[in-house]
Amino acid sequence: MLTTTKTANINGQSKIGDVVAAYLGANIQSDGSVSISKTIPNVALYTKNQTDIEVDVKAFEAQAIAVAQGGIA
Predict the structure, then answer these.
(1) Is residue 66 within 8 Å of 59, Cβ to Cβ?
(2) For 3-51, what is each residue's pLDDT tens digit?
(3) Positive or negative CA dihedral for 18, 20, 21, 26?
(4) Local structure of 57: helix, strand or coil
(5) What's the distance, Cα to Cα, between the start and end of the chain in Å?
């Protein structure tokens, strides 16, 4: 028997100038559960700008939670 699940994916980037400091991803399941990931391609850039990048990460997390709370159509 086939079973399917709807999901929503959100992707973002935190940049310093034109350089990506962190890739952000969220997967939202139809039951409202959320998985959020962060990939840091350049540790030196991330470390130097961590405070600014974490502001972006928190904003991304808030967007993902807002989508989850609104449900997946």
Answers:
(1) no
(2) 888 899 999 999 999 999 999 999 999 888 999 999 999 999 999 999 9
(3) positive
(4) helix
(5) 23
> Of 28, 24, 25, whose CA–CA distance to 73 is shortest?
28
The pTM is what?
0.88
pLDDT of residue 32: 86
The answer to whether 21 and 15 have CB atoms below 8 angstroms apart is yes
Q: What is the rounded CA–CA span in Å between residue 42 and residue 22?
A: 8
Cβ count within 10 A of residue 22: 23
Instruction: Give the Cα separation of 38 and 19 in Å (integer).
Output: 16
What residues have CB less than 8 Å from 12, skipping those under 6 apart? 23, 24, 25, 56, 60, 63
How far apart are the C-alpha atoms of 30 and 12, rounded to whole Å?
Answer: 21
